[in-house]
Amino acid sequence: MITDIEVNKPEPIAFDKKLKSFTHGTEVRPIIEALKKGESILIKDFYNDGLSLLEDLHKYLKLKLPNKSFQEQQKYRSEYYKLSNLVLLEIVDHKLCTKKSPSIGWLEKLYPENKHFLLTFPQIQGLNSAWQWYQNGISIPVLRNKIHPYYGTYFPTRFEHLVLFDNWLKHYKGLKKTAIEIGIGCGVLSFQMIQHNFQKVYATDINPNAIVGLIEFMGTTKLARKIELNLGHLFGKWEMQTELIVFNPPWLPETHNLSSIDDAIYYNKTLFPDFFAEAKKRLLPEGKLVLIFSNLAQITNVTPEHPIEKELAEGNRFQLERCFKKSVKAASSKTKRDQHWRSSEEVELWVLTNI
Ligand SMILES: C[S@@+](CC[C@H](N)C(=O)[O-])C[C@H]1O[C@@H](n2cnc3c(N)ncnc32)[C@H](O)[C@@H]1O
Protein backbone atom coordinates (compact mmCIF):
# COMPACT_ATOMS: atom_id res chain seq x y z
CA MET A 1 0.00 0.00 0.00
CA ILE A 2 1.29 3.47 -0.80
CA THR A 3 1.53 5.99 1.98
CA ASP A 4 2.75 9.58 2.00
CA ILE A 5 3.84 9.43 5.64
CA GLU A 6 7.47 10.52 5.96
CA VAL A 7 9.59 8.21 8.06
CA ASN A 8 12.44 9.21 10.36
CA LYS A 9 15.85 8.34 8.93
CA PRO A 10 19.41 9.61 9.13
CA GLU A 11 19.74 12.89 7.19
CA PRO A 12 21.82 12.31 4.02
CA ILE A 13 25.03 14.36 3.77
CA ALA A 14 26.00 15.84 0.40
CA PHE A 15 29.10 14.32 -1.20
CA ASP A 16 32.17 16.52 -1.03
CA LYS A 17 35.20 15.79 -3.24
CA LYS A 18 37.60 17.59 -0.93
CA LEU A 19 37.14 15.24 2.04
CA LYS A 20 40.22 13.77 3.68
CA SER A 21 40.22 10.01 3.52
CA PHE A 22 41.42 7.16 5.70
CA THR A 23 42.59 3.77 4.46
CA HIS A 24 44.45 0.89 5.99
CA GLY A 25 48.03 1.97 6.66
CA THR A 26 47.24 5.68 7.08
CA GLU A 27 48.69 6.95 10.34
CA VAL A 28 45.82 7.12 12.83
CA ARG A 29 46.94 9.90 15.14
CA PRO A 30 46.70 12.79 12.63
CA ILE A 31 43.28 11.47 11.61
CA ILE A 32 42.05 11.60 15.21
CA GLU A 33 43.51 15.10 15.53
CA ALA A 34 41.57 16.11 12.42
CA LEU A 35 38.36 14.65 13.87
CA LYS A 36 38.95 16.63 17.06
CA LYS A 37 39.14 19.80 14.97
CA GLY A 38 35.74 18.93 13.53
CA GLU A 39 37.01 17.72 10.15
CA SER A 40 35.15 14.87 8.48
CA ILE A 41 37.02 11.78 7.28
CA LEU A 42 35.87 9.54 4.45
CA ILE A 43 36.47 5.78 4.61
CA LYS A 44 37.38 4.93 1.03
CA ASP A 45 38.87 1.49 0.67
CA PHE A 46 37.59 -1.28 2.97
CA TYR A 47 34.56 -1.13 5.31
CA ASN A 48 36.80 -2.69 7.97
CA ASP A 49 39.07 0.37 7.89
CA GLY A 50 36.17 2.31 9.41
CA LEU A 51 35.70 -0.30 12.12
CA SER A 52 39.37 -0.19 13.03
CA LEU A 53 39.42 3.62 13.06
CA LEU A 54 36.48 3.61 15.49
CA GLU A 55 38.29 1.05 17.64
CA ASP A 56 41.35 3.30 17.71
CA LEU A 57 39.13 6.21 18.62
CA HIS A 58 37.82 4.22 21.60
CA LYS A 59 41.38 3.40 22.68
CA TYR A 60 42.41 7.04 22.35
CA LEU A 61 39.45 8.33 24.37
CA LYS A 62 39.98 5.70 27.07
CA LEU A 63 43.49 7.00 27.62
CA LYS A 64 42.35 10.64 27.58
CA LEU A 65 39.15 10.58 29.58
CA PRO A 66 38.34 8.93 32.91
CA ASN A 67 35.32 6.70 32.39
CA LYS A 68 34.16 5.66 35.86
CA SER A 69 31.47 7.86 37.35
CA PHE A 70 28.12 8.36 35.63
CA GLN A 71 29.09 11.91 34.55
CA GLU A 72 32.44 10.70 33.21
CA GLN A 73 30.71 7.99 31.23
CA GLN A 74 28.30 10.54 29.77
CA LYS A 75 31.22 12.76 28.76
CA TYR A 76 33.08 9.80 27.23
CA ARG A 77 30.01 8.75 25.27
CA SER A 78 29.22 12.22 24.02
CA GLU A 79 32.84 12.74 22.89
CA TYR A 80 32.81 9.36 21.10
CA TYR A 81 29.44 10.21 19.55
CA LYS A 82 30.71 13.57 18.29
CA LEU A 83 33.97 12.27 16.80
CA SER A 84 32.70 8.97 15.39
CA ASN A 85 29.93 10.77 13.54
CA LEU A 86 32.56 12.66 11.57
CA VAL A 87 33.66 9.37 10.02
CA LEU A 88 31.76 9.05 6.75
CA LEU A 89 30.88 6.47 4.13
CA GLU A 90 29.91 7.12 0.52
CA ILE A 91 26.76 5.60 -0.96
CA VAL A 92 26.24 5.25 -4.71
CA ASP A 93 23.19 3.55 -6.24
CA HIS A 94 21.98 2.45 -2.78
CA LYS A 95 25.23 0.62 -2.00
CA LEU A 96 28.21 1.42 0.15
CA CYS A 97 31.29 2.19 -1.94
CA THR A 98 33.78 0.54 0.41
CA LYS A 99 34.88 -3.05 -0.33
CA LYS A 100 33.54 -5.93 1.77
CA SER A 101 30.67 -3.78 3.05
CA PRO A 102 27.46 -5.27 4.39
CA SER A 103 24.56 -4.94 2.00
CA ILE A 104 21.86 -2.86 3.64
CA GLY A 105 18.42 -2.84 2.04
CA TRP A 106 17.35 0.30 3.93
CA LEU A 107 19.60 2.37 1.64
CA GLU A 108 17.22 1.67 -1.23
CA LYS A 109 14.00 1.62 0.80
CA LEU A 110 14.61 4.83 2.72
CA TYR A 111 16.44 6.84 0.03
CA PRO A 112 14.81 5.71 -3.24
CA GLU A 113 15.50 9.00 -5.07
CA ASN A 114 18.93 9.76 -3.68
CA LYS A 115 21.64 7.94 -5.57
CA HIS A 116 24.80 9.61 -4.27
CA PHE A 117 25.29 10.79 -0.70
CA LEU A 118 27.18 10.24 2.53
CA LEU A 119 26.15 8.89 5.92
CA THR A 120 28.18 8.61 9.08
CA PHE A 121 29.74 5.32 10.09
CA PRO A 122 27.62 4.94 13.27
CA GLN A 123 24.46 5.67 11.24
CA ILE A 124 25.45 2.90 8.82
CA GLN A 125 26.06 0.55 11.74
CA GLY A 126 22.56 1.35 13.05
CA LEU A 127 21.01 0.81 9.63
CA ASN A 128 22.91 -2.46 9.23
CA SER A 129 21.77 -4.00 12.50
CA ALA A 130 18.20 -2.77 11.91
CA TRP A 131 18.33 -4.48 8.50
CA GLN A 132 19.35 -7.79 10.10
CA TRP A 133 16.41 -7.62 12.53
CA TYR A 134 14.02 -6.66 9.74
CA GLN A 135 15.17 -9.33 7.28
CA ASN A 136 15.57 -12.24 9.66
CA GLY A 137 12.53 -11.33 11.74
CA ILE A 138 12.05 -12.06 15.43
CA SER A 139 10.15 -15.02 16.82
CA ILE A 140 7.85 -14.03 19.65
CA PRO A 141 6.79 -16.89 21.95
CA VAL A 142 3.09 -15.94 22.04
CA LEU A 143 2.71 -15.17 18.32
CA ARG A 144 2.30 -17.59 15.44
CA ASN A 145 4.37 -15.55 12.99
CA LYS A 146 7.64 -13.68 13.26
CA ILE A 147 7.61 -9.90 13.41
CA HIS A 148 9.84 -7.82 11.12
CA PRO A 149 10.58 -4.53 12.87
CA TYR A 150 10.85 -1.54 10.56
CA TYR A 151 13.82 0.83 10.85
CA GLY A 152 13.51 3.10 13.89
CA THR A 153 10.66 1.19 15.54
CA TYR A 154 10.55 -0.20 19.06
CA PHE A 155 10.37 -3.97 19.34
CA PRO A 156 10.36 -6.23 22.39
CA THR A 157 13.55 -8.06 23.28
CA ARG A 158 12.12 -9.72 26.39
CA PHE A 159 8.74 -11.33 26.44
CA GLU A 160 7.46 -11.68 30.02
CA HIS A 161 4.93 -8.86 29.58
CA LEU A 162 3.60 -10.50 26.42
CA VAL A 163 3.06 -13.75 28.31
CA LEU A 164 1.15 -11.85 31.02
CA PHE A 165 -1.06 -10.24 28.37
CA ASP A 166 -1.59 -13.57 26.61
CA ASN A 167 -2.71 -15.23 29.86
CA TRP A 168 -5.06 -12.36 30.55
CA LEU A 169 -6.55 -12.59 27.04
CA LYS A 170 -7.10 -16.35 27.50
CA HIS A 171 -9.31 -15.66 30.51
CA TYR A 172 -11.02 -12.53 29.19
CA LYS A 173 -14.79 -13.08 29.10
CA GLY A 174 -16.08 -9.75 27.73
CA LEU A 175 -17.11 -8.72 24.22
CA LYS A 176 -14.48 -8.87 21.50
CA LYS A 177 -15.89 -6.45 18.94
CA THR A 178 -13.39 -3.64 19.14
CA ALA A 179 -10.26 -2.57 20.99
CA ILE A 180 -7.97 0.44 20.87
CA GLU A 181 -4.22 0.15 21.21
CA ILE A 182 -2.13 3.23 21.93
CA GLY A 183 1.50 3.08 20.75
CA ILE A 184 1.33 -0.04 18.58
CA GLY A 185 5.09 -0.19 17.80
CA CYS A 186 5.70 -3.37 15.79
CA GLY A 187 2.18 -4.56 16.47
CA VAL A 188 2.76 -7.41 18.93
CA LEU A 189 -0.08 -6.59 21.35
CA SER A 190 -2.57 -5.96 18.54
CA PHE A 191 -1.56 -9.23 16.86
CA GLN A 192 -2.19 -10.98 20.19
CA MET A 193 -5.67 -9.47 20.39
CA ILE A 194 -6.46 -10.58 16.84
CA GLN A 195 -5.13 -14.07 17.64
CA HIS A 196 -7.58 -14.09 20.56
CA ASN A 197 -10.42 -13.24 18.17
CA PHE A 198 -10.91 -9.53 18.62
CA GLN A 199 -12.68 -8.42 15.46
CA LYS A 200 -11.17 -5.00 15.08
CA VAL A 201 -8.31 -3.05 16.66
CA TYR A 202 -7.98 0.71 16.19
CA ALA A 203 -4.34 1.57 16.82
CA THR A 204 -2.10 4.63 16.94
CA ASP A 205 1.54 5.51 17.25
CA ILE A 206 3.30 8.83 17.38
CA ASN A 207 6.27 7.37 15.50
CA PRO A 208 5.77 7.45 11.69
CA ASN A 209 8.17 4.52 11.23
CA ALA A 210 5.90 2.26 13.32
CA ILE A 211 2.88 3.12 11.17
CA VAL A 212 4.69 2.83 7.82
CA GLY A 213 6.31 -0.42 8.94
CA LEU A 214 2.96 -1.98 9.82
CA ILE A 215 1.27 -0.75 6.64
CA GLU A 216 4.03 -2.53 4.75
CA PHE A 217 4.05 -5.63 6.96
CA MET A 218 0.28 -6.18 6.85
CA GLY A 219 0.03 -5.34 3.15
CA THR A 220 -3.31 -6.51 1.80
CA THR A 221 -3.63 -9.48 4.16
CA LYS A 222 -6.61 -10.12 6.41
CA LEU A 223 -4.71 -8.44 9.22
CA ALA A 224 -4.84 -5.11 7.40
CA ARG A 225 -8.65 -5.23 7.55
CA LYS A 226 -8.61 -6.02 11.25
CA ILE A 227 -6.07 -3.48 12.44
CA GLU A 228 -6.65 0.15 11.47
CA LEU A 229 -3.73 2.50 11.93
CA ASN A 230 -3.45 6.19 12.65
CA LEU A 231 -0.31 8.27 13.03
CA GLY A 232 -1.04 10.47 16.03
CA HIS A 233 -0.64 11.40 19.68
CA LEU A 234 -2.44 9.10 22.16
CA PHE A 235 -5.87 8.23 20.67
CA GLY A 236 -5.19 10.14 17.42
CA LYS A 237 -8.37 10.25 15.37
CA TRP A 238 -10.11 7.38 17.19
CA GLU A 239 -13.12 8.79 19.04
CA MET A 240 -15.25 5.64 19.40
CA GLN A 241 -16.00 3.88 22.66
CA THR A 242 -14.57 0.38 23.01
CA GLU A 243 -14.62 -2.55 25.40
CA LEU A 244 -10.83 -2.74 25.64
CA ILE A 245 -8.10 -0.11 25.66
CA VAL A 246 -4.49 -1.31 25.75
CA PHE A 247 -1.31 0.70 26.28
CA ASN A 248 2.25 -0.46 26.81
CA PRO A 249 3.65 3.01 27.50
CA PRO A 250 7.22 4.19 27.96
CA TRP A 251 8.44 3.00 31.36
CA LEU A 252 10.86 5.77 32.40
CA PRO A 253 10.33 9.49 33.09
CA GLU A 254 12.24 11.70 30.68
CA THR A 255 15.52 13.19 31.82
CA HIS A 256 16.86 14.95 28.74
CA ASN A 257 15.93 16.16 25.27
CA LEU A 258 14.51 13.33 23.27
CA SER A 259 15.01 11.95 19.83
CA SER A 260 12.19 10.05 18.20
CA ILE A 261 12.99 6.44 19.16
CA ASP A 262 13.16 7.52 22.80
CA ASP A 263 9.40 8.17 22.74
CA ALA A 264 9.20 4.41 23.20
CA ILE A 265 11.18 4.57 26.43
CA TYR A 266 10.66 7.94 28.13
CA TYR A 267 7.41 9.64 29.14
CA ASN A 268 6.87 13.32 29.91
CA LYS A 269 4.78 14.84 32.70
CA THR A 270 1.58 15.09 30.72
CA LEU A 271 1.51 11.69 28.97
CA PHE A 272 -0.25 9.70 31.71
CA PRO A 273 -2.75 12.35 32.92
CA ASP A 274 -3.72 13.04 29.28
CA PHE A 275 -3.97 9.34 28.51
CA PHE A 276 -6.29 8.61 31.46
CA ALA A 277 -8.51 11.63 30.73
CA GLU A 278 -8.93 10.55 27.09
CA ALA A 279 -9.34 6.87 27.99
CA LYS A 280 -12.18 7.78 30.34
CA LYS A 281 -14.15 9.21 27.40
CA ARG A 282 -13.65 6.10 25.29
CA LEU A 283 -14.02 3.16 27.65
CA LEU A 284 -17.47 1.55 27.52
CA PRO A 285 -19.18 1.22 30.95
CA GLU A 286 -18.21 -2.45 31.30
CA GLY A 287 -14.89 -2.05 29.47
CA LYS A 288 -11.35 -2.87 30.58
CA LEU A 289 -8.31 -0.63 30.50
CA VAL A 290 -5.12 -2.69 30.32
CA LEU A 291 -1.69 -1.16 30.89
CA ILE A 292 1.66 -2.85 30.80
CA PHE A 293 4.31 -1.39 33.06
CA SER A 294 7.39 -2.28 35.07
CA ASN A 295 9.12 -1.37 38.32
CA LEU A 296 12.22 -0.37 36.32
CA ALA A 297 12.11 3.33 37.25
CA GLN A 298 11.66 2.48 40.91
CA ILE A 299 14.39 -0.14 41.24
CA THR A 300 16.92 1.99 39.37
CA ASN A 301 16.00 4.91 41.67
CA VAL A 302 14.95 7.16 38.83
CA THR A 303 11.67 8.00 40.55
CA PRO A 304 9.58 6.55 43.37
CA GLU A 305 6.46 7.67 41.47
CA HIS A 306 4.34 5.11 39.68
CA PRO A 307 2.01 6.84 37.17
CA ILE A 308 -0.67 4.12 37.32
CA GLU A 309 -0.75 3.98 41.12
CA LYS A 310 -0.94 7.78 41.07
CA GLU A 311 -3.96 7.70 38.78
CA LEU A 312 -5.70 5.13 40.96
CA ALA A 313 -5.04 7.17 44.10
CA GLU A 314 -5.94 10.60 42.74
CA GLY A 315 -7.68 10.34 39.37
CA ASN A 316 -11.16 9.41 40.51
CA ARG A 317 -11.81 7.84 37.13
CA PHE A 318 -10.78 4.18 37.33
CA GLN A 319 -10.52 1.42 39.90
CA LEU A 320 -8.17 -1.51 40.07
CA GLU A 321 -9.55 -4.86 39.01
CA ARG A 322 -6.27 -6.83 39.13
CA CYS A 323 -2.56 -6.33 38.82
CA PHE A 324 -0.54 -9.31 37.60
CA LYS A 325 3.24 -9.34 38.06
CA LYS A 326 5.98 -11.48 36.60
CA SER A 327 9.67 -11.32 37.36
CA VAL A 328 12.00 -10.75 34.48
CA LYS A 329 14.58 -13.45 33.82
CA ALA A 330 18.05 -12.67 35.14
CA ALA A 331 20.29 -11.15 32.49
CA SER A 332 22.85 -13.37 30.79
CA SER A 333 26.19 -13.74 32.58
CA LYS A 334 27.82 -11.43 30.03
CA THR A 335 25.73 -8.43 30.99
CA LYS A 336 24.93 -9.34 34.60
CA ARG A 337 27.74 -7.30 36.13
CA ASP A 338 26.30 -3.88 35.28
CA GLN A 339 22.71 -4.93 35.65
CA HIS A 340 22.47 -6.38 39.15
CA TRP A 341 19.16 -4.54 39.58
CA ARG A 342 17.64 -6.68 36.88
CA SER A 343 17.24 -9.52 39.38
CA SER A 344 14.43 -7.58 41.08
CA GLU A 345 12.77 -6.34 37.90
CA GLU A 346 9.13 -7.19 37.45
CA VAL A 347 6.75 -6.49 34.63
CA GLU A 348 3.19 -5.58 35.53
CA LEU A 349 -0.17 -5.95 33.81
CA TRP A 350 -2.73 -3.54 35.24
CA VAL A 351 -6.42 -4.07 34.60
CA LEU A 352 -8.58 -1.05 35.43
CA THR A 353 -12.33 -0.55 35.15
CA ASN A 354 -14.62 2.48 35.30
CA ILE A 355 -15.54 3.73 38.75
C1 LIG B 1 7.11 0.63 24.93
S1 LIG B 1 6.66 0.87 23.26
C2 LIG B 1 5.43 -0.39 23.07
C3 LIG B 1 5.21 -0.82 21.64
C4 LIG B 1 4.27 -2.03 21.44
N1 LIG B 1 2.91 -1.72 21.85
C5 LIG B 1 4.80 -3.22 22.22
O1 LIG B 1 4.20 -3.53 23.26
O2 LIG B 1 5.81 -3.81 21.80
C6 LIG B 1 5.71 2.37 23.36
C7 LIG B 1 5.15 2.83 22.01
O3 LIG B 1 4.31 3.96 22.25
C8 LIG B 1 4.58 4.96 21.28
N2 LIG B 1 4.23 6.25 21.88
C9 LIG B 1 4.93 6.99 22.79
N3 LIG B 1 4.26 8.11 23.10
C10 LIG B 1 3.10 8.09 22.38
C11 LIG B 1 2.00 8.98 22.27
N4 LIG B 1 1.96 10.12 22.94
N5 LIG B 1 0.99 8.64 21.43
C12 LIG B 1 1.03 7.48 20.71
N6 LIG B 1 2.06 6.61 20.79
C13 LIG B 1 3.09 6.90 21.59
C14 LIG B 1 6.04 4.78 20.96
O4 LIG B 1 6.38 5.34 19.70
C15 LIG B 1 6.20 3.26 21.02
O5 LIG B 1 5.95 2.65 19.77
Overall mean pLDDT stands at 92
Fraction in beta strands? 15-25%
The major β-sheet equals:
7 strands, mixed
Fill in the CATH topology of the largest domain. Answer: Rossmann fold
Report on this structure.
With 355 residues, the protein is α/β, with parallel strands linked by helices. The protein folds into 2 domains: 20-134, no CATH class; 160-354, Vaccinia Virus protein VP39 (Rossmann fold, 3-Layer(aba) Sandwich). The chain is 36% helix and 21% strand. The protein contains 13 helices and 14 strands. A 7-stranded mixed sheet has the order 8-7-6-9-12-14-13, sandwiched between helices. The relative contact order is 0.10. The structure holds S-adenosylmethionine.
What is this entry, summarized?
This protein has 355 residues and is α/β, with parallel strands linked by helices.
